[in-house]
Design brief:
290 residues, alpha/beta, Spore Coat Polysaccharide Biosynthesis Protein SpsA, Chain A, globular, Trfase_1_rSAM/seldom-assoc, Glycosyltransferase, Nucleotide-diphossugar_trans
């Protein structure tokens, strides 16, 4: 009997695009730059085909919406399961409505949950890497007493889960496939950002199709260690996470370093990159906001 390939899951973390509540750092940077270059906001809106916008907060929210919808559209066929890991919870229906309006399918919209960024990422990975069998969840039975063979077998199937944000909009299907490929030989994959954070993190829990007693170095405890105690929003997030993985004996693959889009300079770099690498156009420029 051949071993099953890993179950492949992809998550995109995103906040709803309410002006003033998302991409505020970008908005402040755009506003500051506008004082020096009065035509900047109009120029950015024109280049991204966002219509006319003279307000930095509105423009930043529209840019975030563009990034999110573009990624969901481009990655709608990736893996076995795709989840938009969204916040705040009262905006989940708005997310779903936007996806329906833009004919973006194959995504389940779920709540990020509470806590800091690390808590929310940890919760997403734990829910997929260590799923609670349906029969146990309903009846409260211990795992050892579950008799549903197919359900038990699926619990022991290997799982490779990759989570990204929306600040690196040029990530492609091939990039996600590469991350999953790295997880065939490693427990963790990380895509570092130039600002010291990371744009992608993936974790694999080894399968045990042939031997249910076979152990994986990724446990609920070692998983938690990747996210607990990290000083989020600092220049050392990637290094802290890499150290945490190494201290727990987890093998790590590191992807190429990329730029997030957090400032006006980052946005200008993105526009120049697209114009240089895609002279005949790119979907990020062509999609319109409904």
């Amino acid at each position: 009997m051949s071993q099953k390939r890993n179950f492949l899951a992809l998550g995109v973390m995103a906040k709803y695009w309410d002006p003033g509540r998302v991409k505020t750092r970008l908005a402040m940077s755009l506003s500051s730059s506008e004082e020096r270059t009065p035509s900047l906001l109009a120029e950015v809106a024109r280049k991204l085909n966002l219509g006319e916008s003279t307000d930095a907060m509105n423009l930043a929210a529209m840019i975030h919406q563009r990034f999110v919808c573009h990624l969901l559209c481009q990655l709608s066929g990736a893996g076995d399961q795709r989840q938009l890991v969204a916040t705040p919870p009262e905006r989940l229906r708005r997310f779903e409505a936007t996806l329906a309006e833009r004919s973006i399918s194959n995504w389940e919209v779920i709540d990020q949950g509470g806590g800091d960024l690390g808590d929310r990422m940890k919760s997403w990975f734990a829910g997929l890497l260590f799923p609670v069998p349906r029969s146990r969840a309903i009846a409260g039975e211990p795992l050892s007493e579950i008799s549903d063979a197919s359900e038990t077998a699926d619990r022991y199937r290997g799982r490779s889960c990759v989570l990204i944000g929306a600040d690196c909009p040029l990530l492609s299907h091939a990039d996600i496939e590469n991350a999953w490929a790295q997880l065939q030989q490693n427990d963790v994959v990380i895509g570092p950002a130039f600002d010291g954070g990371y744009y992608l993190i993936g974790v694999r829990r080894s399968g045990a199709d042939r031997d249910p007693l076979m152990s994986s170095p990724v446990t609920e405890t070692t998983l938690a260690g990747l996210f607990d105690g990290i000083a989020w929003s600092t220049e050392t997030v990637f290094e802290q996470t890499l150290t945490a993985a190494n201290e727990r004996g987890l093998s790590v693959a590191v992807l190429e370093r990329r730029h997030d889009v957090d400032t006006a300079a980052d946005l200008n770099r993105l526009v120049e990159t697209i114009q240089r690498q895609y002279p005949h156009g790119h979907p990020l420029f062509q999609n319109s906001i409904p």
